[in-house]
Design a protein that fits this description.
Layout (H helix, E strand, L loop, with lengths): L1 E2 L8 E3 L5 E3 L18 E5 L4 E5 L1 H4 L2 E2 L2 E2 L1 H11 L6 H15 L10 E5 L8 E5 L4
Parallel strand pairs: 1-9
Antiparallel strand pairs: 2-3, 2-5, 4-9, 5-8, 6-7
């Protein structure tokens, strides 16, 4: 799988032990710069792990001048049951962001979760960056 970040927030890796961390992947906003340099890196998505991709409407959900933020997002992901499937994890993130901003988002909210079942026999290798 190839993944390129082009202005969206860094993806979050939820490990099988339930911990969550942003992946150190960033890229310039497409359509803003004449020259783009997109870096790539690879990692393995192991059984029980999930990759969470989302738009800034999640992390920038607002309550007055306060933002939901990256820390709250990481906390919601880490505090979800380790057995939660991809759909359940995405819904928990959406529910938390909407609850924070009073039920009405001021920006788009899109969430994609890819999860390898804990009983899977193989890992999913993911390339982060431009396809080669």
């Amino acid at each position: 799988m190839a993944l390129a970040c082009a202005g969206h927030p860094a993806p979050v890796l939820r490990r099988a032990d339930g911990s969550a961390a942003e992946l150190a992947v960033a890229g310039p906003l497409i359509g803003v710069f004449a020259q783009l340099e997109i870096r790539s890196s690879t990692f393995t998505l192991a059984p029980g792990e999930a990759l969470v991709l989302y738009t800034d409407g999640v992390s920038e959900a607002r309550r007055g001048t306060a933002l939901f933020g990256d820390d709250a997002l990481l906390r919601v992901i880490a505090e979800s049951e380790r057995s939660a499937d991809a759909d359940t994890l995405a819904r928990r993130i959406e529910d938390a962001a909407l609850a924070f901003c009073g039920g009405t988002a001021s920006d788009d909210i899109a969430i994609l979760v890819l999860r390898v079942p804990p009983d899977a026999d193989t890992c999913m290798r993911i390339q982060v960056g431009p396809a080669k």
